[in-house]
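Mods, move this if it's the wrong board.
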Amino acid sequence: MEFFILSLLNGVSYGLLLFMLSAGLTLIFSMMGVLNFAHAAFYMLGAYLGYTVSTKLGFWAALVLAPVLVGLLGAGFERWALRRVHAYGHVPELLITFGLSYILTELVQLIWGRTALEFQPPEVLRGPAFTLVHHSAEGFQWFWGAAPEAACRASDAAVRVICSPFPATRAFMMLVALAMLLSLWLLLTRTRIGLVIQAALAHPDMVEALGHNVPRVFMGVFGAGAALAGLAGVIGGSTFVTEPAMAATVGSIIFVVVVVGGLGSLAGAFLASLIIGVIQTFAVAIDYSLGQLLVSLVGPRLGAWQESSLLRLTLSQVAPILPYLFLVLILIFRPKGLLGTREG
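Not the wrong board. Structure tokens:
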């Protein structure tokens, strides 16, 4: 039971990190129709800028300033580069954002180096958020923060006690992701700014005739999407690792999330993030192969097939490709995605 609970929590926290990344990408695509290939690079840049700011002003200042800096960079890129190729279609947009991702990666390595940085979270987030204690005689107990030493000590050799802490950094990441979801939903559906943004997508000429600067609206949307990626970078970099390869690690996964959830659907991205995060987390933790399953079902009749290298692959070994298999199934049976409504 403790394995299931902690794996589920770890899967949900990883899924919510994916949502923090995919939310900005979904926002940009749903409002502008631009699939931003540099989004993962903005995530990486947010982590590095957050590290630099935290060394001078502390983590909480970095949590605010780093996303703002990344957002300004994104807005500037849209204003002076992306806008110039927007009229030529989607292929030039993809190419220019793809080129930006390479430029940012090389700049990061040039300025901060190729080795991983020690981006520490604040003291309040370094311990466990709570501890799950499984006592073979008394059942489960929950403790906020670290469990008392006595609770993790067995009374005799026959009693089995397992103390499983859940990191406070992951709990904080989950809270920020949920707050981001709520804030975006309120912004887009309950505010005048959100109505102008949605109207500018469907009827840009009419919105401009009403006195709104549509190019400036799109610049703000792109900057906001980049800022969300920067925020995810600060939290992800301090929770996991800050290194140049972090963009490549999550770059392909967030596109899987966006396509599986449905292009342009924020709710779909949230659902797909949770599904993919939970699937990958459980798959990594399960060391069981298809061959073992078949042997338990058909027994010795399996014969020489038991020694097949394909059947000996464990679920944890194939875990990295599971999101892409899920993507293939979605594209075959539901091309619009789980909650997608937009065509093209």
